[in-house]
Amino acid sequence: MKASPFDIGWVAGILDGEGMVTISKRATSYVPVVRVSNTSKALIDRFCDIMDMMEISYCCYGKHKAGNRKYQWDVCIDGRPRVYKLLSLLKDHLVAKRQQANNVFDWIESRGMDLRGAYTDDQMALIQKTRDLNGRGRQFSENVSPFEGRIR
């Protein structure tokens, strides 16, 4: 069974709200990573079902948080071929994570199949831009004050 346009849009929405798109450092190299975390096993199961339909490999695992926090489920898609395939299907449907997805997609394309070559300045800049976008804390656009918003 192949993923429908609805399924692809659903996955994009989940990734926008519950996910992360980044490039992680592992030892001396960098790896593109897409991760979705949620406490709903049903949501994670549906996400994994759609990954299976898309024929994208993933790792799914649960972890217990300290105290009385809910059990959390994570789905991790990493590596250039898998992340490239996923982002090529999702990047135009993303809203909140669109820039991160475009940065990671461009980084993968710039690396090609060069697994051991040195990283260029442009590639390192894409890594830093993505990290900055994923950074914690308050981040306000130059054009919008923190108090502006939509009121209907």
Topology:
Elements: H1 5-18, E1 19-26, E2 29-38, H2 41-54, E3 59-63, E4 72-78, H3 80-90, H4 98-111, H5 121-134
Antiparallel strand pairs: 1-2, 2-4, 3-4
Helix pairs in contact: 3-4, 4-5
Instruction: Tell me the strand percentage band.
Output: 15-25%
> Reading side by side through the largest sheet, how are the strands ordered?
1-2-4-3
Order of helices and strands: HEEHEEHHH
Low-confidence stretches: none
List keywords for this structure.
152 residues, alpha+beta, four-stranded antiparallel beta sheet, 4 strands
Describe the structure.
Helix 4 packs antiparallel against helix 5 (121-134). The mean pLDDT is 90. The protein is built from five helices and four strands, in the order αββαββααα. It has a four-stranded antiparallel sheet. With 152 residues, the chain is α+β, with helices and mostly antiparallel strands. It is 44% helix and 20% strand. A hairpin with a 2-residue loop joins strand 1 and strand 2 (29-38). The protein has helices at 5-18, 41-54, 80-90, 98-111, 121-134, and strands spanning 19-26, 29-38, 59-63, 72-78. The termini are far apart.
Quick summary:
The chain is an alpha+beta fold and 152 residues long.
